[in-house]
Specification:
Elements lengths: L1 E9 L13 H21 L2 E6 L7 E5 L5 E5 L7 E10 L3 H12 L13 E5 L9
Antiparallel strand pairs: 1-5, 1-6, 2-5, 3-4
Length: about 130
């Protein structure tokens, strides 16, 4: 079963994640943790994909406009308290295994090396229904 694990980060007063205020060593420790986690998941054969995402300031909402041309606006919405900071797609045997991976990711270090305990949303990636001939 495939699951998407979505790391949600709190928005700071500037609209970005507070990571912009971390020391270089704190950022290095956090990124190192994530790289090691990804390497372990890859070695286990569980990792399908993983990426960090740009800040909300750089996000855009796109809708189909006239004749299908893109209408682009800023996004996500200002009232959003959290934003998607990154994700993993894992292929594991059980939801419990996906939950265990999410818990490990949630414990990534933040300021002072303390675990962030960030919320990680876990959703099964649905496969398409069978196509009838």
């Amino acid at each position: 079963m495939k699951f998407m694990l979505m790391m949600n980060a709190p928005r700071g007063a500037s609209g970005d994640w507070s990571v912009v205020n971390w020391t270089p060593d704190e950022v290095k420790a956090h990124i190192g943790f994530m790289r090691r986690l990804n390497q372990e998941l890859r070695a286990q054969g569980s990792l399908v994909a993983a990426e960090g995402l740009a800040t909300p300031r750089e996000a855009r909402i796109v809708r189909a406009g006239t004749a299908g041309s893109p209408e682009v606006t800023d996004g996500p919405f200002a009232e959003t308290k959290e934003f998607l900071a990154g994700y993993w797609i894992v292929d594991v045997e059980t939801p419990q295994h996906a939950h265990a991976i999410a818990a490990r990711a949630s414990a990534a270090p933040g300021p002072g090396g303390k675990p962030l305990n960030m919320p990680i949303e876990v959703r099964q990636v649905m496969s398409r229904p069978p196509i009838e001939p």
